[in-house]
């Protein structure tokens, strides 16, 4: 249908059909009456940029020298790592074969877990709240600088007020605890 619309001659249609059945690429120009394409005359200019590009049906493979010249064949340099203690490994294997259990590793894990629990102090909720309020203030300042302050102002101020309320509750609890401690230490005297 496309050939009929493009008003090709019978020779041109036959030539294009032959190219398609052979699997060749279609020619850029199909001469109307010659059975052979005319030999290309000497071009007026020999610039390779101006010549029409013809793509072949076969994929182009790069030569081995070109592939080897790239970084594809370079190996990474060996970097030795810390060596393991072979004596400990032997003892561990002996324990596993003798008892069926890895006794040494369990003791080490228990000791490590106990030290980790002791080292990590409980995070202070009051300090966390102070940090969260500061983050929200910084966020609001950034949004105002970008011209989006009105969009986020209500949400951020609501969150800040909630954090402040929680901080007040924590502060009241701490002050009550301090009063109790002070009254226990000094039972008689002024209660001011």
UniProtKB/TrEMBL annotation:
Protein name, entry field: EVG1 protein
Record-linked InterPro entries: UPF0193
Organism: Sagittarius serpentarius (Secretary bird)
């Amino acid at each position: 249908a496309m050939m009929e619309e493009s008003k090709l001659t019978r020779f041109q249609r036959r030539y294009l059909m032959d190219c398609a059945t052979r699997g060749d690429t279609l020619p850029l120009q199909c001469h109307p009456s010659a059975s052979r394409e005319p030999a290309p005359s000497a071009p007026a200019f020999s610039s390779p940029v101006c010549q029409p590009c013809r793509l072949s049906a076969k994929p182009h493979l790069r030569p081995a020298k070109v592939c080897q010249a790239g970084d594809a064949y370079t190996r990474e340099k060996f970097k030795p790592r810390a060596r393991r203690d072979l004596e400990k490994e032997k003892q561990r294997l002996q324990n596993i074969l003798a008892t069926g259990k890895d006794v040494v590793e369990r003791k080490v894990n228990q000791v490590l877990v106990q030290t980790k629990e002791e080292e990590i102090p409980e995070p202070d909720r009051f300090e966390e709240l102070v940090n969260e309020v500061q983050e929200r203030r910084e966020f609001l300042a950034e949004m105002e600088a970008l011209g989006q302050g009105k969009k986020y102002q209500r949400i951020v101020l609501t969150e800040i007020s909630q954090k402040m309320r929680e901080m007040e509750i924590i502060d009241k609890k701490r002050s009550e605890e301090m009063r109790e401690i002070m009254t226990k230490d000094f039972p008689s005297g002024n209660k001011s």
